[in-house]
Design brief:
The chain is mostly beta strands. It contains no helices and nine strands. The strands form two sheets. Strands 4, 5, 6, 8 and 9 form a five-stranded antiparallel sheet that branches. Strands 1-2-3-7 form a four-stranded antiparallel sheet, with no helix packed on it. The protein is elongated, with a radius of gyration of 16 Å. The mean pLDDT is 94. Residues 8-132 form the ApaG domain. It comes from Qipengyuania vulgaris. This is Protein ApaG.
Length: 132
């Protein structure tokens, strides 16, 4: 089955694609815990080699609370992408509300060491409605 990337953004020839799925088996609505998994594919359509150095996430829950998450690389890696390469990874996001959103940016370095930001598209986190 082919993954459906619902959200994407391109910056300077680097495309970030996101597919997000709610995981009911990892969620506990009765304890106000909901969990999503997201698959990200980063594609280099530029003409130079780049390296992903850091990430910045803005995570907003359904109550409007905003968390900023910064870190090196993605899931412990700082991948180098040659022209035409792509890099995939999967991570997750817990929230205390049944809906919210995520967005942010990666900082890449060009071959000459110059940093530049690549936008991560906004994507909603929404648990399906349940009869209660």
């Amino acid at each position: 089955m082919k993954e459906l990337f619902q959200h994407n953004a391109m910056t300077d020839g680097i495309t970030v694609r996101v597919a997000v799925n709610f995981l009911p088996e990892q969620s506990q609505p009765e304890a106000e815990k909901w969990f999503w998994v997201y698959h990200i594919r980063i594609e280099n359509a530029s003409h130079e080699r780049v390296q992903l150095m850091t990430r910045h996430w803005r995570i907003t829950d359904g109550a409007g609370m905003v968390a900023h998450v910064d870190g090196d690389g993605v899931v412990g890696e700082q991948p180098v992408l040659k022209p035409g390469d792509s890099h995939d990874y999967v991570s997750g996001c817990p929230l205390d509300t049944p809906f919210g959103s995520m967005e942010g940016f990666y900082t890449f370095h060009r071959e000459d060491g110059e940093p530049f930001e690549v936008r991560i598209p906004f994507f909603p986190l929404a648990a399906p409605a349940t009869a209660g």
